[in-house]
Amino acid sequence: MLATTLAGSLPKPDWLAEPEKLWARWRFTGEALTRAQERAAAEWIQHQEAAGIDIVTNGEQFRIHFVHGFLEKIEGIDWDRKTAMGIRDDRYTVQVSTVTGPVSRPLSVHLDEVRFSRARTERRLKFTLPGPMTICDTIADDHYGRRADMAMAFADILNNEARELAAAGVDVIQFDEPAFNVFMDDVKDWGIAALHRACEGLTCKTAVHICYGYGIDENLRWKDTLGSEWRQYEEIFPALNASRLDQVSLECAGSRVPLSLMGLLKHKDVMVGAVEVTPDKVEAPEEVAATIRAAMGHVDAERLFPCTNCGMVPIPYDIALGKIRSLAAGAALVRKHL
Questions:
Q1: What one-character DSSP code corresponds to residue 16?
Q2: Please, are residues 198 and 162 in contact by the beta-carbon 8 Å criterion?
């Protein structure tokens, strides 16, 4: 009960890539890069086990970015053709690569790293993949014409990938969909249908992670505009509750999300973000425990999984490590009194 896990990414050590950066360049190439990524992943798995995290991840140590680390091995994308694109409904603009033809996956993208990670732990292993809608909000389209059509094409690719990873021993496959908090009508029109296609035939647990984004300036400024209550989840949780996914991961600690919205997920396991993405603070275990107890007012303990709010790649390594330790310790405090 109250099994702990992570939303996804963890900081890369400074010897692997420039720290506290999204899109940070690797410090190695070729075989040396692979060995360095393996070392970083193994260290984070060890840190999680030592802290007491129940469902571990490799912290996305093999990826330069949670979306583009998957896309870099997909065909049909012109990486040299850059398009200025407003990410998350123009929250910030980035020069992104462009889909110029039918997308395809000639080989598995993450199978080798999953096999490596699976061999490093006997605990349950979770693996994150970008969701179809968020992919479409992170790369430009000059082929499909409609985001829904491109999303379905990527969903088919993601499904093939996910099946291979599950067969290699992944216990939970999570699709990261921060775009769900922005394009709420699209979620109901085609976003969940795309996730269903991505999950087709999977026998492992399936999850979707929805949040308010990394703790970067662009997202923090956007959060400041959302008012005293953040109710984006209210629009999409009923549809997610009726979906075929097993789990929903959401932002909670330090946010203005009304806790009562968790009650809209009565048929799902809920991964409750009990530590923030702030780069300058480690929550005390008692703070984590208070967040978990508050969530238990709306989610049965049997369905509640204390988690991190979002990926932690842009925050300092030692802060992330402290948050992981506090997450596990806070959950242990609550378990004592169940």
A1: T
A2: yes
Q: Which two tokens stand for residue 128?
A: 């994150």
Write the CA distances from 111 to 81, 117, 123, 197, 221, integer angstroms: 28, 10, 18, 20, 37
Residue type, 90: D
Secondary structure letter of residue 27 according to DSSP: S
CA distance 303 to 3: 9
CA distance 214 to 47: 22
Instruction: Give φ, ψ of 113 to 5 degrees.
Output: -70, -30
Q: Pairing state of beta strands 92-104 and 172-176?
A: unpaired
| Cα 296 to Cα 290: distance, rounded to the nearest angstrom | 10
179 backbone dihedrals φ, ψ, rounded to 5°: -65, -20
Measuring CA to CA, how many Å separate 84 from each of 78, 109, 139, 219, 275? Answer: 14, 26, 10, 19, 33
Residue 109 to residue 144: CA distance in whole angstroms? 23
Could you tell me the two tokens for 106? 């000639």
Whether the predicted model's global pTM rises above the 0.90 cut: yes
Summarised one tens digit per residue, pLDDT across range 301-333 is 999 999 999 999 999 999 999 999 999 999 999
67, 75, 217 from 71: Cα distances, Å: 6, 8, 25
Taking only the tens place, the pLDDT of each residue in 171-227 is: 999 999 999 999 999 999 999 999 999 999 999 999 999 988 877 787 778 888 888
Q: Is the dihedral of CA 221, 10, 317, 56 positive or negative?
A: positive
CA 222 to chain CA centroid, Å, is 19
d(CA 212, CA 191): 17
- Give the CATH number of domain 30-335: 3.20.20.210
